[in-house]
Amino acid sequence: LSVKSNRQEVTPRQSGVSQTAKDISAFDFGSCSRQHLQGGSQAMGRESFDALMQSANGRKVFREYLKSEYSEENILFWLACEDLKLESTPEGVEEKARVIYEDYISILSPKEVSLDARVREIINKNMVEPTAHTFDDAQVQIFTLMHRDSYPRFLNSHFYRQLVSDGAATS
């Protein structure tokens, strides 16, 4: 991506992804029962996954689960995108965007995340002059993948049961 061309602004879709990674010290089990986490409705399930991803402890346990599934790169990519959004200098944004591209987007990377061709094209165009939002569409796609694919299995795992029992013990 060292070739510069006329910049074509590609605006990512608005996403439900938070603008910053919130560090909530523990997952709030007082308001999120297992039934609520599994969600009787899709909206409840989405809220529960959002709560998990906003909790430092929840992300840690979910990351361990993803590692056991050989898909840890998904949460690592999501976290890297959240970190990129916190960068305030253009130089810092450019450097972090390059690292994210090399680590998670490049087809040569062992940690490549699964993205469709449309999103890859948007990223390639945006990498000419990267911004803090260069990977927004990709981040939404990976967030959705984790929510729909990995999260339901996580709810049935020993990782989740341990998270619940640890949370109940500290509540």
UniProtKB/TrEMBL annotation:
Cross-referenced Gene3D superfamilies: 1.10.196.10, Regulator of G-protein Signalling 4, domain 2
Name listed for the protein in its UniProt record: RGS domain-containing protein
Domain spans labelled RGS: 48-164
InterPro entries to which the protein is assigned, alphabetical: RGS, RGS_sf, RGS_subdom1/3, RGS_subdomain_2
Organism: Macrostomum lignano
Top-level taxon of the source organism: Eukaryota
